[in-house]
Every structure is written in C-alpha cells, then in structure tokens.
Design brief:
Fatty acyl-CoA reductase; two-stranded parallel ribbon; NADP; 15 helices; EC 1.2.1.84; alpha/beta
C-alpha cells in the first residue's frame, strides 16, 4: 500500500473519542454509534491519562487506574477487536538502577517491601473515604486539593513509587494484565517525550512537561542551578517515534506478533544515549546564540551555565548559604521602617527560589534516575516493519529507530525552536 493510500485508509477507519477512559466506556450516548463500534472496532488505542506527577489521588486513580477497567469493559464488547494498545510510561519502574526489562507487573506487586499488599480496590476506598471526610468537615476546595495531592504522594511512597502519576499508571497496567481475559493487549512505555522529529512537521509540541519546563526556565534566565549527575543518561524520545510505534502496531494488528501482554519500551538510552552534561550544553549553546527577549526590561535574556549538584544534601547546603541566608537578612532589613521598600525585592526573590525548589522536588526522580530501558521488543517490531513493508517511504514515515536521531542537531535546530514557537511565545 502506498503511503498516501495508507493515510487515507486510516482516516476512513478511525474514530477519535476524547475524554478519560471512564468517559469513553460509559458515556457514549448515541446507541447507534455505540452498537456500530461494538460491531466494527478492531483496534483500540488508549492515551487517556492525567500526567500531573502530584495529581489529586482520587483524580489520578479514577483516570489512570479505574479508567482501565471501564476501557476493558468496552473492549470486551467489540466482537472484532484484535488488539488494545495502552500508552503508559517507562517510569512505572520507579527508581530502579541498571537495565529495566520490558516486563509486566505481577498483580499487587510493589517496589519495596511493605506489611500491606497493594490492592487497587483498597486504594480506591481509601481515597474515597479521605475525600468524604474532607467534605463532611466542610474543607475548602484548596484544602481538599492540597490534602488529596499529599495523600497520593504518601500512598505512592509507601509502596516504593516516587510520585502519584507513575504509581497510578503502574496500578493501571496491573489491572489491564489481570482483567483482560481474551483481549489481546500491548503496552507502550515511552520515556521522556519531546517534540515531533519530522512528521507531520518538525518541532510541534503541546504544553510544558518534564524536561521542557527546565529548558524554558533556563531560556528565561530563571534557573542557574539544579539537581543532576553529568555522567547519567537522560532517556529522550521524539513524539514522532512514539506515535510511529503505535501506527506500526496497528499495521500488523492482523498478525500474531509476540505473546499477549507485550511491553514495548520506546526510548533511546540503550541504542543512542544522550548524557545529562550534553543536554545542558545544547540548551545553553542555543540560548547563548538565540536569546529570548525580555519585553518588560526591553533587552535580551542572558543565560548562565547551570550548576549541577549530584546529591540533594549538597544542593540544600548550597541553597541555604547562597540564597536562604541572604534572603533572611533582606527580610530583617525590610522590616526597618525606612527600608520597607525592600519588601517587594524580598518577596520577588523568595518566589523565584520557591519555584526552583518546587521544580527540584518534582523532577528529582528523573534528574537522578540511573536506569537504562531495554528495548528488545521495540527492536523486533522495527525488524518486522522492514521485513513486511519493503517500501522505503513507509519505513521512513514510520521510523522509530532512536539511532536515526542526531541529538545535537535535533535539540538545537528542531526541538527548542519548536518549543519556543508552539509553547513559550
């Protein structure tokens, strides 16, 4: 099939449903559409998720875990269904070092020893009970949000996961594997997703996530230090490669390829690694040559090289001596009647520091992650594409080989310009 014909084929046979997995499974109101889908659907791609690392526990559970059960309920009614592809994240592995295998979780598996077993139903009951208590006590919405976010982190840490997002995604994977019955499932676990590489056009991205928040902060002159080891590998993947992996899975959906429940890591750490020091150098070099413009100050923003700290302890000492102590002195000075003009200076700088400290807390798991993601199954899928297609245009269009990316060229000439064009400006 020619490339253009393939696009037309997919366009004519695709139904896009927006909303969480629970919404899709329970809220298709049109009975004719619903019945038609039950008769005709042969491939389901589930991308529904809340990706906030510290989302409210009840919200994250509803979408990332319980939503999977609703999706399976829908999938089991699709009489022609050949495959259900679920998009997860490679970081469900937690803070594991070394080679991370493409391996499914056991139901109830935890990442550290606990006296209590991990049970998603109990977790759902705990979250529901906590929320009910807060509402019975007439807590404000701000208090409810803060408490439920903190509760999610507490439960995730209890079982060995660093944040609510990866914890609830891991439970979602467990539910998919445990309750799929005859549904043929595939789980894609991408690493940190950057902008499109070539298709449909270079550099497109929506919103600030993970590493892009750090890139934007450096470009705006708001970050001069961070947590990280220069010699660690940062596992990046282009959005194009992640979607190409999905499309290739769709192209071979009529084939029995691997066992039910296959896991595919989509990343670069084994085949084309980029080191933390390299990534920071590329970002620094870009903004040195192409500075952002501060319209308020009416001048280009001068960036500085980010100072990396390999341990949270040494970073905290640096923050205390370099920033907290001077700010404390400034706060005392600002309380002197004729020097109260410095209160605004204190407030502004304290806010900047608190923002950076929140970033560090949010991304410390990724900043110090020392794992490398095996991609044996993804490599086999690439080989299957080459063997089954023979069409160079299709292979190029749906390329998801990390070896094809020149990181310096991609980050400097495609990703950062795209980030500025579609998100920052």
């Amino acid at each position: 099939m020619e490339f253009g014909g393939l696009v037309e084929y997919l366009e004519n046979k695709t139904i896009l449903l927006t909303g969480g997995a629970g919404f899709v499974a329970k809220s298709i109101k049109n009975p004719n559409l619903r019945d038609q889908m039950f008769k005709d659907v042969d491939f389901i791609v589930n991308c529904a998720a809340t990706t906030d690392f510290f989302e409210r526990y009840d919200v994250a559970l509803a979408t990332n875990t319980i939503g999977i059960l609703n999706l399976l309920s829908f999938a089991k009614k699709c009489i022609k269904l050949k495959k259900l592809l679920h998009l997860s994240t490679a970081y469900v592995s937690g803070e594991r070092d070394g080679i991370v295998p493409e391996k499914a979780f056991e139901f109830g598996e935890t990442l550290k020893k606990t006296f209590t077993k991990l049970d998603f139903e109990i977790e759902h009951e705990l979250a529901t009970h906590k929320l009910s208590q807060l509402r019975e006590n007439e807590a404000s919405e701000a208090t409810i949000n803060a408490t439920m976010r903190e509760f999610g982190i507490e439960r995730a840490n209890h079982f060995g996961w660093p944040n609510t997002y990866v914890f609830t995604k891991a439970m979602g994977e467990m539910c998919l594997e445990q309750f799929k019955e005859d549904v043929y499932t595939v789980i894609l676990r991408p690493t940190m997703i950057l902008s499109t590489y070539k298709e449909p056009f270079p550099g497109w991205i929506e919103g600030l996530r993970t590493i892009d928040i750090i890139i934007a902060s450096i470009g705006k002159g708001k970050m001069s230090f961070f947590l990280g080891k220069p010699t660690l590998i940062v596992d990046l993947v282009s959005m194009s490669m992640c979607t190409s992996d999905m499309v290739v899975n769709a192209m071979i959906l009529g084939m029995v390829f691997g066992e039910n429940g296959m896991i595919y890591h989509v990343g670069s750490s084994i085949k084309n690694p980029i080191y933390v020091s390299q990534a920071y150098d590329y970002v620094y070099n870009y903004f040195t040559e192409n500075p952002l413009f501060d319209h308020k100050e009416e001048k280009p923003i001068i960036v500085t090289k980010v100072k990396l700290f390999q341990h949270i302890f040494t970073l905290n000492i640096y923050i205390a001596i370099r920033f907290l102590l001077p700010l404390k002195i400034l706060q005392l000075v600002a309380n002197i009647p004729f020097l109260r003009c410095y209160k605004d200076v204190y407030a502004k700088n304290m806010k900047k520091l608190q923002t950076v400290m929140r970033f560090i807390q949010k991304f410390k798991h990724f900043a110090l992650f020392n794992g490398i993601f095996e991609d044996t199954n993804s490599e086999r899928l690439r080989e299957e594409l080459i063997k089954g297609s023979g069409n160079l245009e299709i292979m190029e269009a749906f390329n998801f080989d990390p070896n094809s990316i020149d990181w310096e060229d991609y980050i400097i000439n495609t990703h950062i310009p795209g980030l500025i064009k579609y998100v920052i400006i």
